[in-house]
Structure formats: structure tokens, C-alpha cells
Amino acid sequence: MIRSRTSRYGFAWLELLLLLSVFVLLLQIWPEGGRTLIYAVDFRNWPRTVWFFGNIFVVAMLLTVRFGPELIRDWRERREHLNAERDKKEKVRELKEQKDAAQRMKESRSRRIY
What we know:
By secondary structure, this protein is mainly alpha-helical. It is built from three helices and no strands.
């Protein structure tokens, strides 16, 4: 498969490489930061509260992946339905106002004296 030059994937790689280069530069400036990062990533050092909230976060993300698109689709459909109802009520109100204005004009013409 041949990709065109207008492909968006090139920008993602460029941005990731730039981020990686900045990260490596920071580790060279502060070598202690690398040791601290390795200590923080090592799950053997994590307390129970971090495990607890980490598991809650994973479950929340799994629920979001499972039910999120369906909830978004339902929300959009409901919003479209409410917008359609609002537009319908607005048109009915405008037609009623036009009808009332025509009725008032008819009554005012009938009261004229020639």
C-alpha cells in the first residue's frame, strides 16, 4: 500500500519523536530523574492505594470503551429529536402568529368607514 504525502500518520510520528527527544534531553540534564522514573514505574514499589485506584481507573476505562460510543450516539439522537421538536413548535407558533395577524387585519378592514 502506497501512502500519499498528505497522510496524517507522518505528523504523529514526528510529534512522538520530538517528545522522545525532549524526554531524553531532560534525562541527560537530570540523571536522578531517570532513576526516580524507573522507581515510580516499578509496580513492586506501589502501595495498596495506588493499586486500588489504578484498578478503578482500568475498570472505568473498560466501561467507557464498552458503553461510551453507544451513550454518545443515544445522546446525539436525543439532541436531534429535541431540536426537531423545538423547530416544529417554533413553526407552529409562527403560523399561529401569522393567522392571528391576518385575523386582526380582516377585523380592522371590516370596521373601516368608506
